[in-house]
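Input structure tokens:
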């Protein structure tokens, strides 16, 4: 339980007693909980969808859900993504990139990438056809869909996408950490994760989200999972070429890149 609470506190703003940096987790077991916490975040967003969609048009509902998502996570991964973009695009050497990423201030590259990322996520959510997602599921029949009011079909099926997106985003961080070494000489937020994970932990944390994705989204869901897997590997390789490894910021960036990949893949289905 302590490993779950550490992960929950690390990835969200939900209070769990001691802060994550005051605990001593077992990192190998923490890896298992990363996608599970992602699923819980997606579940919370899915439940919030039901009252929101009752009172607002779906365009507004999607925006509210995205804002809620940022609030629950404290913008943790978006901050890392912005710092990563500033460093990768603003520095011409490894040392300069790492120095820029260490700066707490957000530069022009980071701000532009944040705007593009949030905007693209919103457009993808708006563009996804709920009935198309429902047709992929092994546990949702066409009769069930026809028997629901349209707004509930929208909430249920968009909820599946949110579950998928949040779980795969956290899973991709474990993948990125397992494929890398820590890029900095000094200590940092992501060091404890990056230095203690390997591919065995990736397999361990893939089991639960993999089964749920298959049940909710069928074979095409597994295809989306595979696409996110490939994109995460490519992005991790790119970052490693630029700075010689991964940091806490770049793990946050992997999360954002994989989430966008999932949403784009669902739009393309």
């Amino acid at each position: 339980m302590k490993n779950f609470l550490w992960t929950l506190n690390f990835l969200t703003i939900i209070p769990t007693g001691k802060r994550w940096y005051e605990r001593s987790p077992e990192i190998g077991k923490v890896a298992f909980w990363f996608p599970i916490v992602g699923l819980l975040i997606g579940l919370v967003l899915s439940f919030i969808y039901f009252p929101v969609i009752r009172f607002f048009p779906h365009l507004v509902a999607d925006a509210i859900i995205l804002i809620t998502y940022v609030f629950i996570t404290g913008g943790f991964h978006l901050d890392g993504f912005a710092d990563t973009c500033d460093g990768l695009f603003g520095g011409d050497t490894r040392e300069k990139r790492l120095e820029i990423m260490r700066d707490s201030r957000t530069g022009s590259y980071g701000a532009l990438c944040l705007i593009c990322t949030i905007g693209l996520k919103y457009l993808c959510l708006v563009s996804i056809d709920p009935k198309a997602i429902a047709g992929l599921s092994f546990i949702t029949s066409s009769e069930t869909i026809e028997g629901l009011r349209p707004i509930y079909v929208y909430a249920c099926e968009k909820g599946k996408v949110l579950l998928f997106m949040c779980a795969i985003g956290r899973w991709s961080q474990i993948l990125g950490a397992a494929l890398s070494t820590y890029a900095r000489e000094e200590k940092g937020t992501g060091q404890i994760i990056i230095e203690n994970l390997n591919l065995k932990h990736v397999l361990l944390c893939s089991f639960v989200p993999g089964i749920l994705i298959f049940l909710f989204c069928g074979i095409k869901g597994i295809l989306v999972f595979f696409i996110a897997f490939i994109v995460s590997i490519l992005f991790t390789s790119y970052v490693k070429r630029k700075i010689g490894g991964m940091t806490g910021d770049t793990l946050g960036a992997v999360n954002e890149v994989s989430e966008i990949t999932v949403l784009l893949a669902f739009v393309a289905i």
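Residues 4 and 57 are 36 Å apart (CA to CA). Confidence is low (pLDDT under 50) at residues 141-145.
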